[in-house]
Amino acid sequence: MGQTEGFSEVMRVLIYGGGAVGLGIASCLLRSGVEVAIVARPDTVAALDRTGVVRTGIFGRFDAAPGTFTCRTGLDQLESKPYDYTLVCTKSFDSAFAAADLARHIGQVGAGMKLVLFQNGWGNAEAFRTHFAPDRIYNARVITGFRRDRPNEVEVTVHADAIHLGSLFDAGTGAVDRLASAISAGGIPCRTTGDIGKDLWAKMLYNCALNPLGAILGVTYGALAEQRTTRDIMDRIVDEVFSVMVHAGYTTHWEGPRDFLDVFYGTLVPSTAGHKSSMLQDILAGKRTEVDALNGAVIKLADAHGLAAPYNRTVYGLVEFVETSGNVI
Within this chain, do residues 167 and 296 fall inside the same structural domain, yes or no? Predict the structure, then answer.
């Protein structure tokens, strides 16, 4: 393996979860010379062994040939070595399993590695705190669209802002500076931040409004913003998420929901207008969605603080129906 540009030692990174996000980030790290191991499902591992990682889309094409990285179906199959980082790229509903699995195989991955959660929603870090010290846990905020049409190929479809890495537990950013630089060098902008909590709630506002409606109606984000009726529903969802966030003691980058909605309709939605929601992609693929970590997390916090959140409850219930029945409107 080569050396990561600007560093004297080879960085070792484990990608835990070989879905669209996991392969997209893996492609960046491989391009920048990082030593990468990927733990994924058997069909993904078989495809990676045959033809390597392929990334296409708005940041250009990159191919990593088979044999230039390690891919396995379980942690117990990895050669024991100290990884600098483990990037958790599983769905949010697998957080508890992933945390326990990594803790159980700490000898394979190294006791000193940092965990970086590349996951949707709110509450993932708490699942990892059960097994790991908080100063080892970091979160990533990703507003880049990844689509995987084949097991080893990922397309970057849209990009609204740089990936942000940071700690919810006041651990600083120094430990993930090298990782951010390596991802950026590999083709997708990435930087560290001391405000990752604000970033995650900003993404919650964005995701809770767009993701479930896109799944229920089977349309792109841009289509949702074009109609008065769907804009009104999204406005109400944002109002509720903002209220729940404030009552739960969290903050984001805007003083109130109106300020966020100006940016939402003026910048965020236009830059991701062609994207189809991850919930919709999951439903069409017959997979479980992450609605529990998005609108479901808002509902749990609303219940804890005596708030109603009727719009979030409604779209949550509709996503559950579509997820169970497979009937997108």
Answer: no
| Average pLDDT of the residues of the chain | 94
Residue 260 and residue 141 share a domain: no
Average pLDDT over residues 108-136: 95
Q: What does the DSSP assignment read for 123-179?
A: SHHHHHHTTS-GGGEEEEE--EEEEEEETTEEEEEEE-S-EEEE-TTS--SGGGHHH
Same domain flag for 23 and 141: yes
Alpha-carbon 190 to chain mean position: 13
Residue 32 and residue 147 in one domain: yes
In sequence order, the 6+-apart residues with CB closer than 8 A to the CB of 19 are 40, 89, 90, 91, 148
Question: pLDDT (tens digit, 9 = 90+) per residue, 91-105?
Answer: 999 999 999 999 999
The verdict on residue 301 lying in a domain is yes
For residue 163, the enclosing domain spans 12-194
Planar angle of CA 201, 204, 205, nearest 5 degrees: 95
pLDDT > 90 in the chain, percent: 86
Does any domain span residue 2?
Answer: no
61-71: per-residue pLDDT in tens?
999 999 999 99
pLDDT over 70 at 1, yes or no: no
Asked whether residue 7 carries a pLDDT value surpassing 70, the answer given is no
β-strands 53-57, 62-64 pairing: antiparallel
**Residues 302, 215: Cα–Cα separation, whole Å:** 23
Beta strands in the chain (DSSP E): 12-16, 35-39, 53-57, 62-64, 70-72, 85-88, 114-117, 137-141, 144-150, 153-159, 163-166, 190-192
Give Cα 253 to chain centroid, integer Å. Answer: 19
Chain segment 175-204, per-residue pLDDT in tens = 999 999 999 999 999 999 999 999 999 999
Query: Which residues are CB-contacts of 76 (< 8 A; sequence separation ≥ 6)?
Result: 105, 108
Whether the model clears a pTM of 0.85, i.e. scores above it, the answer is: yes
Do 249 and 233 have their domain in common? yes
Asked if the structure places residue 7 within a domain, the reply is no
